[in-house]
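does this look right to u?? magnesium ion version
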Amino acid sequence: MANDQPVPAWMEEPLGVIDRIELLTVSLPFVAPFGTSVATWSCKEALLVRIADKGLVAWGECVADPDPYYASETTTSARHIIRDFLLPELKPDYSLAQLLERFRRVRGNEMAKAALENALLDLLAKRRGLPLHGLLGFAPRRIMSGISIGFQDDVPSLLAKVEEAAASGYHRVKMKIGRGRDVEWVRAVRQRFPGLALMADANGDYAIADAGHLAALDGFALTMIEQPLSYHDIFLHSLLQARLITPLCLDESIHSCDDAEAAIALKSCRVINIKQGRVGGFLEAVKMARLCAAQDIPAWSGGMDETGIGRALNIQLQAAPGFTLPGDTSETRRYFHEDIVEPPVLLDKEGFIAMPQGPGIGVDVMETRVEKYLLDRELAREHGGAARQKAKGKSKK
Ligand code: OSB
Ligand code: MG
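got this back:
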């Protein structure tokens, strides 16, 4: 790894022959639509990487949406990148470190890379019978919880959602904001919940010309404003941060540790939302958290409304040093009536979330439920057999 950390032995051992790799797309209906300034999603469509190897089954989840509204990658582009550019690099004599080095040739496409890297990490951890946090050498700990509340039709509905979240014990509440749905909505929540740890996420809805307008949010003691400006901007955020008292947090703009370093050096933000899927995987996310800690930048683990596979990974990740703030890790029932893993994520009496102790991601994938929500299944790699064969194509859409 970087930041001058010693490379662990398991990263340098050959990956060996892997029996079978499949790419599956599932679509799980949400309990309620999730509205943001960029899109409203009513189900979670996710690309899953399933690795079957000598009796073990390992999983990765790509955080891309089916559309390019939050980020440029999609479930379909990630499938293409994994199948046609990343999997061909996978050779039995390569170690994970060597493979990741090969992946650098593929520019961008962090979500695709993360899905495959994370599935391989799950496999490596399961081969050793260790939970992911244990593979990385981190002590288990219960993690803080946070909730991201999407747009609601009116202020009373928003207040009801916030009330419910506060009563459930979430350690902080995030509300979505956007043009025309900002100052008055935040004011209403703050007036009703004066002591609540509250933040707002704009998903890039504003321009630097809105700085004066955004300064009105300084009156509400928000813990931070997430990604007010464009999804690919770092510099203009530094101009905005200089004009606001409220700390800014970057989400969409950060794809790598280099981006984080640039943002910190430019004072574009005082907090970073680390989404392992957006930064190219678990290992880059661990590095980024370490970088943030070294620079006194609080960081937290974001979410992408993942199924239980990605959510489990986000929980394992928060054993790493540097995740000092509550993130977007919420209870399963917030998202799905039925998830594809067991057990579901639950808050304890103090609002914390336990870290699963089982091998790898630490939760069990219910394959009958994967089948139930399956849109597409493709055999991408089979040892000694034909690769790239369409094994199943259901169209439910
Ligand atoms: O901007 O953090 C975001 C969900 C999907 C895409 C982008 C974002 C979000 C969330 C919810 O805010 C995070 C979660 O609950 O997993
Ligand atoms: Mg965000």
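The chain has a mean pLDDT of 95. idk if thats expected tbh
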